[in-house]
Amino acid sequence: MRETIRRAAAGSRYLLAGGVTGLGAATALTLVLVLVGATPPLGLLLLPAVVRANRWIAGVERRRAGELLGAPIADSYPPARASAGGSGLRVASRRWLTTTIDALVDRTTYRDLAWVTLHTVAGTLLALLTLVLWGWVVAVPVLPLA
């Protein structure tokens, strides 16, 4: 019986943490839709930062799933291109342009975006379901007393 409760508590912690990252994913997804959709010039300017945020959330979930499964899940991002050294507006704009083009051409960007979209819904709903079920488990034994 103790083992069952321990496993249920561990699973609940995993699902509740997924709800937290699901809300983070919702924030990142909203940023993508608003910045890129509503204000294209600003969205294009901030696209590399938004892609990094999406990749970070996907990486957090990869680590969590790897810990649960007992084997690390590797990411499949292509290596970043070496940027030219130096400073100045021309070098910075060239670096931004290559980063933006790499993000738009890379298939893993769209895979991460699809994962963030799915995780926004599934992670949040499963966390809410976990809270409801634990509330039900706690409330059922005392119902006949009321």
- In percent, how much strand structure appears in the residues? under 5%
Largest sheet: none
Helix content: over 70%
Q: What's the domain count? A: 1
Question: What is the typical, i.e. mean, pLDDT?
Answer: 84
Overall number of strands: 0
- The chain-level structural class is mainly alpha
Q: Could you name the ranges where pLDDT drops below 50 across 5 or more consecutive residues?
A: none
- Compressed to H and E, one letter per element, the order equals HHHH
Measured between the Cα atoms of the first and last residue, the distance is: 27 Å
How is the quaternary structure best described? single chain
Global morphology: elongated
Q: What is Rg? A: 21 Å
Number of H/I helices: 4
Protein architecture, described:
- The protein contains four helices and no strands.
- By secondary structure, it is an all-alpha fold.
- It has one domain (2-137).
- α1 packs antiparallel against α2, α1 (2-38) packs across α4 (107-139) and α2 packs across α4 (107-139).
- The protein is elongated, with a radius of gyration of 21 Å.
- The chain starts with a helix and ends in a 7-residue tail after the last helix.
- The mean pLDDT is 84.
